[in-house]
Design a protein that fits this description.
Length: 321
């Protein structure tokens, strides 16, 4: 099987870092580049972190800096209480290993790379979707040249969960709702891995300790980077472990059979008290809905084989695939 050629659009971010290690170590993924975006921290911090992660785990993979703020709004405050003051759980970051920065802005890097590999590139986007929307604005013709876009973001009400930042909105979509609505409306295949499945997938304290003990340098890194994040989950959700957000998008690329899905166009509310809410019209729904009809269908994940997901991550980190 040929490898998945991936551009990883990311706002590192503790769980972003864990998903980068996963991609760097999995033999079926060829990382073509990392593109940074504001989100969990400022663009300066997420870009520095992306360069550190690439330099340490994916040497030679380029990093391009992306958007500092959403399309139409002010940049949000960094989420230091979740991801630490440095965005990576306050671990030490060695400047000496940081990858060089590509001279192009992220959206240009995406356009050029997609055009260099027509029909082959998978975009894994795990932060606000601003870079993808800017790429579409600059070169709308790239959409049909992209193999697939897999997004961690949104929530569709399974288990009555619609958000994690407000009662109605998930962080990445709320980060730039205008961009998200553009991305879901473009003619490229989109799969959405939202809170419906990422909050069902939990890496327990013992699971993470096992990675530390059996996963060599990568396992030790995953443990170290997740200490602050685990403490946040314990305080905020009384959880003895962490939700698996961004690595779930990677898993969808590698093993889509682990997810139960539903197809249909997705819209994002861009104002009002429910700004950032994601709403799908299932393709089986017969009634007319002009705001959804004639938009492309997205694939939304509704359920997950949790044990299968956790086993895939563990085997990748521990080198036992
Ligand atoms: C998403 O928001 C960010 O804080 C995480 O990195 C993840 O991408 C979860 O809602
Ligand atoms: Ca993220």
């Amino acid at each position: 099987m040929s490898k998945h050629k991936v551009i990883y659009d990311t706002d590192p971010g503790v769980d972003d870092a864990m998903a980068l290690v996963f991609q760097a170590l999995h033999p079926d993924i060829e990382l073509l580049g990392l593109t940074s975006v504001f989100g969990n921290a400022t663009i300066e911090t997420t870009t520095r972190n992306a360069r550190f992660l690439a330099g340490r785990f994916a040497p030679g993979v380029p990093v391009a800096q992306g958007a500092a703020a959403p399309l139409k709004r002010a940049a949000p405050e960094p989420l230091a209480w979740i991801h630490g003051d440095n965005g990576l759980g306050n671990i030490a970051i060695e400047a000496s290993v940081e990858a060089a920065l590509d001279s192009r802005p992220a959206h240009r890097f995406i356009i050029d790379t997609v055009r260099a590999h027509p029909g082959e590139v998978t975009l894994i986007a795990v932060g606000p979707l601003t870079n993808l929307a800017l790429a579409l604005a600059d070169d709308p013709q790239i959409a049909p040249l992209v193999k697939q876009v897999v997004i961690m973001g949104g929530a569709f009400g399974t288990d009555a969960v619609l958000g994690n930042v407000t009662p109605a909105a998930e962080a990445n979509i709320l980060g730039d709702p205008d961009a998200a609505d553009i991305v879901f409306g473009a003619p490229w295949p989109v799969a959405i891995v939202g809170l419906d499945v990422t909050q069902r997938t939990i890496m327990s304290h013992d699971y993470l300790a096992s990675l530390r003990d059996r996963g060599g340098a990568a396992g030790q890194f995953v443990w170290d980077v997740s200490r602050h994040y685990e403490a946040f989950h314990e305080q905020s959700a009384q959880l003895k472990g962490i939700y698996v957000h961004d690595s779930s998008a990677v898993t969808y690329v590698l093993a889509p059979h682990l997810y139960t899905t539903r197809t249909g166009p997705v819209r994002v509310l861009t104002d009002g008290i429910a700004v950032g809410q994601t709403i799908q019209k299932p393709s089986t729904m017969p009634v007319p809905a002009p705001d959804w009809d004639n938009r492309p269908e997205s694939t939304v994940c509704l359920d997950v084989d949790v044990a299968g997901m956790l086993a895939l991550y563990e085997r990748t980190i521990c080198g036992t695939l």
